[in-house]
Every structure is written in structure tokens, then in C-alpha cells.
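Database export, one record per block. Field names are fixed; values are copied verbatim from the stored entry.
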Amino acid sequence: MLAQHGIAAICAHTNLDMAVGGVNSCLAECLELKNVRMLKEYEMSGLPEALMGETSREYAPQEFAEFVKSALRCDGLRYTDGGHTISHVGLCSGGGADLMYFAAEHGCQAFVTGESKHNILLDAENKGMTMVDAGHFYTEDVVILPLLRKLEKQFPNIRFMKSKQMHSPAKYI
């Protein structure tokens, strides 16, 4: 239907997650992490499947969760209280909860992702890890405006738009 109306669509997903300047990089930037580096390499490509970095100051667990909620403009989020101050954070946008274990092994006190299962939240709590489940949409939407700016700069004669339809379907009460 898009082609019938002369509209082109770009639908990059996993490759955009791991790319330099991609979803995970934009998520780290949005969370104001410094000294960002690879946490886990994706074996098939050698690209970073998850990143880690340092906060500009120490946070208490709830304070960090509130910062993430504000930074990502989430309607709500879930988190575990790791019981420790946070200065090192791991992250993987979207459905990267299972990478929390790598974050714990590499000295992160917190891990931010987009969706997690009950058993992984329990494991995070038992490991003393503050895990922030900020919603799949919110951890990935951070790349759209930077991507639009790059495309507009590269192709000034083409009009790019961010979808007004895409949103998080979750509602919080």
C-alpha cells in the first residue's frame, strides 16, 4: 500500500539496536551515561548487543528509576531495588532482560531494558541489582529523532517523518 502511494518506509530493527549511533547508543545518551562501552558482544556480528556506562553521580535505586522514567518520558515503569547506590549501568533496549546477568558479572549496579519476566526480576533482586523495565517502546523510541536528523542531513531533498501512530500500548493506573 505504501508503494502504491509513492511512499518509502525504512524498517530496521535488530541491526539498528546494535549499530554505532543506534538504539542502544541513543538509550545510553538519553540516560546521560559516560564512558560507554560494550557489555556483551553479539556472536554473529561482533557488534555490541548490550552496553554499559557510568552515571554522572551516584543514585539510590528508586531515584535512578525515577530518573529513567523522566529521561525516557515513560508513562510508568517497573524496577527492582538492588539495595546499593548506582554508578555503573548496563543496558539493552527492547527485550534484553536476560543480559542483566552479564551486567551483574561486569560490576553494574543497575540494568535498564524494555521488558522483563518475573523470574529475571527475582534474579536481579537476589543479585542485588536494580533492574529497570522501562517498556519496550520507550527504550527503543529514543533512536527515532536522531535517526531522522541524520537522514535529513544526508538526503536534504527527501521528507522524513516520525510516525504519530506508534506508541506504547500499555496503560498505567
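Remark 1: The chain has seven helices and six strands.
Remark 2: Strands lie at 34-41, 48-59, 78-79, 86-92, 110-113, 130-133.
End of record.
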